[in-house]
Each structure stands twice: as C-alpha cells, then as structure tokens.
Design brief:
5-stranded mixed beta sheet, alpha+beta, Helix Hairpins, about 750 residues, OB fold (Dihydrolipoamide Acetyltransferase, E2P)
C-alpha cells in the first residue's frame, strides 16, 4: 500500500466529516449531494482495496454492524442522575429554585446574584458518549442511572454525532452526555416515505428517537433521521485547562465538533431565568423539535460542588416545565383497569384527539373521588391534557356542552360490584381513595401486574419478562406467584408463542442473574401493600361493662346506653351471622347491596356499620415474615455464639411443632365460635398468623436446605414444594364453615 493511498484516505475522512457537520449540525450544506456521494464512494473503494485503512472513526462505519441478539449492560463510570422537576409552570417556579440555591449557599439579600446557565429540556433519549483519545468507543443509554445499555452500533449511525473529536490534543477520556431526538420536519418526511411505501409509520418524534436507538438491527436505526445535542459531561480524565463553568464546557464541546443547542443563555439571578422561560414559551411551537421545558443550572462548577446532591438529584439544577397541551374531545365510555394492588382505576374511552404530538384515545380518571370532583360522565365533552406531555388525563368536563337529558353519574362500586377480571368482591375501605378487588393473586389482572412489577428494572430486573410473556404464563396457569418464575424450565418457555429456544435460554439466564440482587430491590419487588386494622383489633377487646366486643368498638365513636348496644348486636346476629338475605330487587334489614356499608333503620341517623372482608387478614402473614425474620435469625446466631447451635433437622422439627400449635389455636378459636354462631375476638386469627409465620421461618428455609444438600439433583425441583410447604388456613376462626365472613365496626362517616 502506498503512502499516497493512506494520506488520501485520511483526507477523505476529514473532508466527509466536515461536510457531515455542516449538513447535520449547522444545517448549512457546503456541497451538492452528488459530490458528497462521489467522495463517499471513493473512500469506500480505498478501504475495500486496503482493509487496513479502515478506522473506527471512518464515515463508512456509520452504516452499522450485524444485528444484535440483545443490548449488553454497561455500568456508568459516573451515574447519570436525573434532575428535579419544578411543576410550578409560572415565574414562581424559577423564583423557588433561586431561593433554594441562595439558601444552600448561605447568601443574604445584599449578596450578589448567582450566575445561571439556562437551556432547553429536549424530549428524546438521554445518551452517554465515551471518547478515548478523541475517538468514539462506546455509547450507552441512561437506564436506571447506574447501569445502561450499550447502543454503540446504533449511535454510530447518527450523522450528527462525531466519530472523532475535532482537536489534535483530546483528553484521554471524555464522556459527553446529551439527548438523541428527531426533528419535527424529519419526522414528517420519514412518515411520508413510509406511507408511500406502505410501511409502518412512527407515532411521534420522541418514540421515534428512542425506538431507533434501541433497535437490535443497526441497519434500521441508520434509516431514521436522528439528531443530537450535548448538555453535559460524565467521566473526564486528563483534560488540561478544562472549563470551570457549564456554559464554558458547552462552548468547548461545540469547538470540538459536538452539536450543542444554540437556544441557551447565561445570566445573573432569577430575572434572567424568568425571561428565558417566558421567551422559549412564546417560541415553543416554532422550534424545529419538541421540548417539555427548560433547565436551569448554577453555572460555576465550584458552586455546583458546594451545593452537592440530595438523594439522587443535584441541588444545583432543576427542570422547569411548561403547561401541558390541552384539547377537547368526547367521553365514549368509562371502563376500569385492575392494577397490581387490586385498585380499580377508571379509564375514559375517548373520541380520538391529537394532543401533545400523539393521538389520544384513553385517559385516566384516577379514582372515584376524582370522577366526582370533576363530574365526568359518559357523553360529556372534556378537556384532555397530557400531564408532563406523557400521561393523558381528563382535566375537566365542559358542563355547558353536556347532553340532554343529563347522563347518570358514574360510580365504580355500582358499576363494578365484583372484579371484571376474577369476579371477587370489590370494596373501598374507609380512608382510601381506591376501590380494590379483594381477590389478591387469585385475580389474573393483579397477578400479571404483580409479576411485571416484580420483574421491573427497579425491582428484580428480569430482562425479557414483558407484558405478552406474562400474559401467557398467567393465562396458562404456569405462574401463580413471583416465586414460580424461578421454577420455569427451558421446555416450558420454549413451548410458548414467540419464544424460541434461544429466547427461552436468555430469559432463564436473566432469572438466574436476578438472584444476585440487593435487599432493597427484593423488598421493593414484593410490592407489599400495608393494610391497617386498628378498628378491628379494638372491636375484639370488649369493654369493662360486659363481654360485648361490639361495645368495645363503640368506644371509638362514643358510649351509647346498653339498650342501644343490644340493638346493634341484634342487627348483627340477624344480618351478619344469619346471612345477608338480599333478594333480587329487595333489601332486607336496611342492607345496601352495592356498598360495604349498612344503615338499618334502627341505627341513629348518620351512623353506618362498616364491614371488612376477613380475607384481608392474610396480609398479616407477609407482614410477620418481614418483622420476624431478623429476630429468628438473630436467635439462632445467638445460640451458635453460645455453643448451643441447633441442627437443620431440629429446626425443621421446631417448625412442624409450631405450625401444629398454630392449627390448635384455630381449633380453639373455632370451638369458642360454636360453629360460627358466636362472635369471638379477631385476635385469634392474628395469633394464628404470628405462630405459623415463626413455624414457616424454621421449616421452609431449613427444609429447602436439606433437600438441596441431600436429594439428587434431578429430584431437587420436585421436592422443593414439599420441603417448603406449611399449613395455611382457608377459613377463619370466627366462622370456620364460611368461605368469607365480615368483621364489623362502627363509623359515623358517610359512605363513599
């Protein structure tokens, strides 16, 4: 190879990158497309003839590589932390930020104003670019802030991002952080081409940018018109004479050939921030790209270091949002979605409307209180807003446009007395905004959401366990609890739709990797819902004037005379212990069919009898597991330290004894109930769960340990359920023969 060829290749690379920068960054083409194509083909020919001329920063490498099976994980050298969002869209939002900064810096009213840098908050995908000796070597998404995904191949296809920094003396390591986005005009032109070719179009510029970078095939990413703006730094090593301000850093990056948005200012004090916020708000619709706010930063790095961080957010920066865009549309219907905790979330089905860059057909109504406050009804004309330009919500109903005659009010408990997914009772506890399905993991919707939460990135981080796969696992009864995920086999997964053997193997590897997690992530993954039963505890304590537990409950709401107490007890005996006795179209004993609140005629006006499903008491088991686990572990460690350690077999024996004792507690409680006809204290059930939990903590881990140690490997999985099993009740000691009973307490609050 001649030196002339090497020199010509280097010259072509420099010239092509110069034209790329002019075209994609400056938006000022310097040569015709035909001439650019000629230069590019010449470089391709040289590199084809002499493969040793190919360099990582060559423009020919932007076409991408081979399709990937998955994105490798990358741990950020410096975490990509999020910044605080100021939801106050008025000037007072900037004023509040300035006040916090001055307070943290100890500045008084007479001290000079703080110098700030203000810039746009782009609506795209955050990216970290790593340059070593001036050459782009890696690119990663933000991920959870600590760990992202390696998207280097796709980033190389973005012409706006330089493959080599424009300097002869680059820092040994320089990480540039910024946003990949899609301009509105580029988005429209791309969709026009797609429609002309009969191919799928992109939903909006933001999703187009994020989806492009996360394409496993770099060739697809290369077809998307993406742009990039830098807004900060990550890891930096050996940068001589590095700028000492944020604005100076952006100016330097621009000189190095890195795209930096020109819509930015530096200014003194809050007045400069307010002026910038108002200026961008007035020109927001004219910008060539989407934004959802502006960002304020303390300009000097020394002051940034002095301010530091709070939790995972810097004190020296804030994102100041703009009011979300709003449109009018019509409510076609109101349905509910069952969430992970059983909450029934009402969702308005809307006539399609374009809001904030997307077509909206559904919007959340949050809960019954919000429906009542906004008075939203089917057929109403409503104002729809994309809160934070992301989540559509109904702001208000336009009462003047309400149809005549007026449609009825929507009530969740009346429309859905039972869960639409599993048929379990729906109830709304006093003090809670949400109506909930009482089915727990019996409810397939709750089971699916619980599994998705369990596998989420912030929880156990099981890559590949997504919506469609969870649907199949639950619908086919392959997974009933999160623990069942760890018992899935390759054959089972490979037999599911769109799950080839390789995909199944990758998922099993992700499941295995998830075992090495932190305690905080594990507890978060469990998604435990805290339930409080103070009223029901008090209801079981009785009162000093007699054995009536009901009288004890009435202490919460005043002390009526004994005659009134007997009337309450008579009502309970007839209705609760004798059955609700509700016939179709008829209500006996004043029982309201649609609500878990009762107001018989014999009760004083404004006083209701509230009841709670006894199945909720099962929440005590996971609560006691968390509470007792450290105590049991500490107890056994104490015995070991005294030279009195207990063998695994003896721990299993203790577990069996304790579970037996817990069942005896249930038997005694049942005897006192006289077949469910006599009221007994709910504390019997609490005592049962306390004892059986300690038994489980002795039995389950030790049994599993014995099986894994002694059983042949091929028998470990089949023996695991037997080794960890412990008795669980299916009835309560209050009424053992009933599947569901209700424990009453009194309330003077009106029902929801």
């Amino acid at each position: 190879m001649r030196d002339a060829d090497r020199a010509r290749a280097a010259a072509l690379r420099r010239e092509i990158e110069r034209h790329n920068h002019a075209y994609y960054v400056l938006d000022a083409p310097t040569i015709p497309d035909a001439e650019y194509d000629r230069l590019f083909r010449e470089l391709q020919a040289l590199e084809a003839e002499h493969p040793e001329l190919v360099t990582p920063d060559s423009p020919t490498q932007r076409v991408g590589g081979s399709p990937l099976d998955a994105f490798p994980k990358v741990r950020h050298a410096v975490p990509m932390l999020s910044i605080r969002t100021e939801t106050d869209t008025e000037a007072s939002g900037a004023q509040a930020f300035d006040a916090r900064v001055r307070k943290e810096l100890g500045l008084g009213e007479r001290d000079p104003p703080v110098e700030y840098a203000a810039e746009l908050k782009f609506d795209g995908l955050a990216i970290n670019l790593r340059y070593e000796q001036g050459v782009l070597v890696a690119a990663a998404t933000r991920g959870d802030g600590e760990t992202g995904e390696d998207v280097t191949q796709n980033i190389r296809t973005v012409h706006a991002i330089p493959l080599r920094l424009q300097t002869g003396s680059p820092p040994p390591v320089l990480e540039v952080r910024g946003e990949v986005f899609m301009r509105r005009d580029h988005f429209e032109r791309y969709n026009e081409r797609q429609r002309a070719a009969g191919k799928p179009t992109l939903v909006n510029p933001r999703n187009g940018a994020a989806g492009s970078i996360r394409q496993l095939d770099p060739a697809i990413a290369a077809q998307r018109p993406l742009s990039f703006f830098a807004y900060g730094l990550g890891e930096v090593q050996g940068w001589q004479n590095a700028p000492q301000t944020h604005s100076g850093t952006l100016d330097t990056l621009e000189k190095l050939g890195v795209p930096v948005c020109g819509e930015r200012i530096t200014g003194l004090g809050v007045a400069a921030l307010v002026a910038f916020h108002d200026d961008i708000a007035a020109r927001r619709d004219q910008l060539p790209f989407d934004i959802d706010g502006v960002v304020y930063k303390v300009n000097r790095f020394d002051l940034q270091r002095e301010l530091g961080f709070v939790t995972r957010e810097p004190r020296w920066a804030v994102a100041h949002k703009y009011p979300a865009q709003e449109q009018l549309t019509t409510v076609l219907g109101i349905e509910v979605q069952v969430g992970r905790t059983g909450a029934l979330t009402p969702v308005a089905r809307l006539a399609p409307v374009f809001v904030g860059g997307v077509t909206v057909t559904n919007a959340t109504l949050h809960n019954q209180d919000e429906i009542d406050r906004k008075d939203v009804r089917v057929g109403d004309t409503v104002i729809v807003r994309r809160a934070g330009d992301v989540i559509p919500e109904v702001v208000a109903a336009v009462i003047d446009r309400r149809p005549r005659p007026e449609p009825p009010r929507f009530n969740i408990l009346q429309s859905y007395p039972t869960c639409p997914e599993c048929g379990s009772h729906v109830m709304r506890l006093e003090g809670e905004a949400a109506a909930r399905c009482t089915g727990g993991l019996v409810c397939p919707a709750q089971r699916k959401q619980a599994l998705l939460h369990f596998a989420g990135r912030r929880a156990m981080d099981i890559e590949g366990l997504g919506d469609k796969l969870v649907d199949q696992l639950v619908d086919r009864s392959l997974v009933r609890t999160p623990a069942d995920v760890y018992g899935l086999s390759l054959d089972t997964l490979a037999g599911l739709e769109r799950m080839a053997e390789k995909s199944a193997a990758n998922l099993l590897q992700a499941v295995e990797t998830s075992k090495a997690t932190t305690l905080a992530r594990f507890i978060f993954a469990l998604g435990i819902l805290l339930v409080y039963f103070v009223n029901y505890f008090i209801a079981g304590l009785g009162d000093e004037g007699g054995s009536s537990w009901l009288a004890g409950a009435m202490k919460l709401f005043g002390r009526p005379d004994r005659g009134q107490v007997r009337k309450y007890e008579e009502f309970i005996d007839k209705v609760l212990w004798g059955g609700l006795q509700i016939d179709e179209g008829e209500q006996k004993y004043g029982v309201r069919k649609s609500l878990f609140y009762y107001q018989p005629d014999l009760l004083p006006p404004g006083t209701y009898l509230q009841v709670a499903n006894s199945e909720l008491y099962q929440s005590f088991n996971p609560f006691f597991v968390i509470a007792f686990t450290p105590l049991v572990v500490a107890f056994f460690q104490f015995l070991v330290s005294r030279g009195r350690g207990v063998s695994t077999a003896r721990k299993v024996f203790y577990g069996l004894v304790l579970t037996t004792v817990s069942l005896l507690v249930m038997v005694v409680g049942g005897l006192f109930s006289d077949g469910g006809t006599v009221k007994v204290s709910a504390l019997w059930l609490v005592g049962f769960y306390a004892i059986v939990t300690i038994g489980e903590l002795c039995l389950s881990p030790m049994g599993l340990s014995l099986v894994t140690k002694l059983a042949p490997k091929r028998l470990v999985a089949p023996l695991w359920p037997t080794a960890t099993a412990s008795p669980e009740p299916t009835a309560t000691p209050v009424a053992p023969e009933r599947r569901t009973i209700y424990l009453p307490c009194l309330s003077r609050a009106a029902p929801p």
